[in-house]
Amino acid sequence: MNHSIHSADRSTHLKIVVVALVAGIAVAGFGIAARTGTSDGTQTARIIKAGQPTALTSSNTTAVR
């Protein structure tokens, strides 16, 4: 077993590359599968309306000038 990447042989480097490639494909696949959307491919905009405005009449903070 090689404990250093510098002293590793060719097959160890190949194993590292393969594991990284499989992990990258898995993460990309999970990201694509986790998208939310409709089945027909169209997207709709979500509208968020603001609430009533509030007025701040007093504050207990000190002003640094």
TrEMBL record:
Transmembrane regions: 12-34
Keyword Transmembrane helix in annotation: yes
Keywords in alphabetical order: Membrane, Transmembrane, Transmembrane helix
Superkingdom in the source lineage: Bacteria
Protein name per UniProt: Uncharacterized protein
